[in-house]
Design brief:
This protein starts with a helix and ends with a helix. It contains 10 helices and 13 strands. The chain folds into 2 domains: 19-215 and 319-331, P-loop containing nucleotide triphosphate hydrolases (Rossmann fold); 216-316, 3-Layer(aba) Sandwich (Rossmann fold). Helix 4 (91-99) crosses helix 9 (294-300). Strands 1, 2, 3, 4, 5, 6, 7, 8, 9, 10, 11, 12 and 13 form a 13-stranded mixed β-sheet that branches. Helix content is 30%, strand content 23%. By secondary structure, it is α/β, with parallel strands linked by helices.
């Protein structure tokens, strides 16, 4: 381990030793990962929230709102709200607000304070069935959680297995031991065998149940609100772009759908699009349909959009038994 990674690792240890977790008065499910970059946390949070609602619970999401300027704690408004601004709340909270229109979402870097804010702001009648879902929470020390769900990307699980900045690990692999439930995401696109990856995980956590999940294309979503089958992309010439952590995973999904990609452009994760970016994309597409991710589309809503642009919506599809496992465990808390 190099000096910078050693310093980073020492900081992690000090934080764990000095910061005491605070407990909220309602139950908390945390969804997080071990690495920098995307493991599919946002689709997973959306799916778990939807399942909680189907089971009669009242979920409230606590999110950091990365790169959003609003300091919080504050509720994330929907797109229809005149106070909505992607710059204020961040792209991932904006996507969750778009997909989960009746679910309160609180932005605050300190998720414990965010939870207190929600408890003080939401109707008292909601509290008996209220649960908090902590977005990107595996490293968030200040808030106690009742269930810690760890996502591991089967496409690229741990990079070079080194801590940041030498590698992509946010914590050492030994931190896997804290997880109550583990999901191997993008299992359908795994670059190592799932058996090998499972054995690796079991070196650090012998007891947590391990499930597999995939991120499946569900529809093409247009700015108008209309949707279409992703099957219409077969043999269709498209121009695609993405500003996410794993843009080439998005490209691979498009290829799997049979799309004829005439050009693919990648931007940095959380890229803030300007009108000149979109005008250049429109010109380069030269009349071909333009496809991007849902996360990118929410960042484009305040710009002048081409008529032929849409987003590929991805659904988190997890192995049978996962939801019963976490919600039955939650009922025992």
């Amino acid at each position: 381990m190099g000096l910078l990674s050693a310093i980073y690792g020492l900081g992690l240890i000090c934080r764990r030793l000095t910061v005491k977790p605070h407990r909220l008065s309602v139950r908390v499910i945390s969804v997080g990962n071990l690495t920098l970059g995307g493991t599919g946390k946002t689709p997973a949070v959306i799916a778990i929230t939807e399942e909680a609602t189907r089971r009669g619970l009242k979920p409230c999401i606590l999110t950091r709102g990365y790169k959003g300027k609003a300091k919080g704690p504050c509720f994330v408004p929907g797109f229809q709200d005149p106070e909505f601004s992607i710059q204020e709340y961040g792209d991932e909270p904006a996507l969750m607000a778009e997909r989960l229109r009746d679910v309160p979402i609180v932005k605050c870097a300190d998720r414990y304070k965010g939870g207190q804010f929600a408890l003080n702001s939401l109707p008292v009648t909601a509290h008996p069935s209220l649960i908090f879902i902590l977005d990107d929470g595996f490293q968030h020390v200040r808030l106690h959680r009742d269930i810690d769900i760890l996502l591991i990307d089967a496409y690229n699980p741990f990079g070079n297995e080194r801590l940041f900045p030498e590698g992509k690990l946010r914590e050492p692999l030994s931190s896997i031991s804290r997880a109550h439930v583990i999901i191997l995401t993008r299992a359908d696109m795994a670059r190592v065998s799932l058996e090998t990856l499972t054995l690796k995980v079991r070196q650090y956590n012998a007891d947590a149940p391990i499930f597999t999940a995939s991120h499946n294309p569900s529809c093409l979503a247009y700015p108008s609100g209309e949707t279409a089958s992703p099957g219409m992309l077969r043999n269709k010439k498209i121009y695609a772009f993405a500003g996410i952590a794993n843009p080439f995973h998005f490209r691979d999904i498009l290829i799997s759908l049979g799309a004829d990609i005439i050009s693919f452009k990648s931007f940095r994760d959380h890229h803030r699009y300007k009108q000149k970016d979109l005008d250049k994309i429109r010109a380069e597409a030269a009349g071909a349909d333009i496809i991007t991710t849902e996360k990118d589309m929410v960042k484009l809503r305040e710009l002048r959009l081409p008529d032929n642009i849409c987003a590929l919506r991805i659904e988190f599809v997890v192995e049978d038994g996962f939801y019963n496992k976490i919600f039955n465990a939650l009922n025992r808390v």
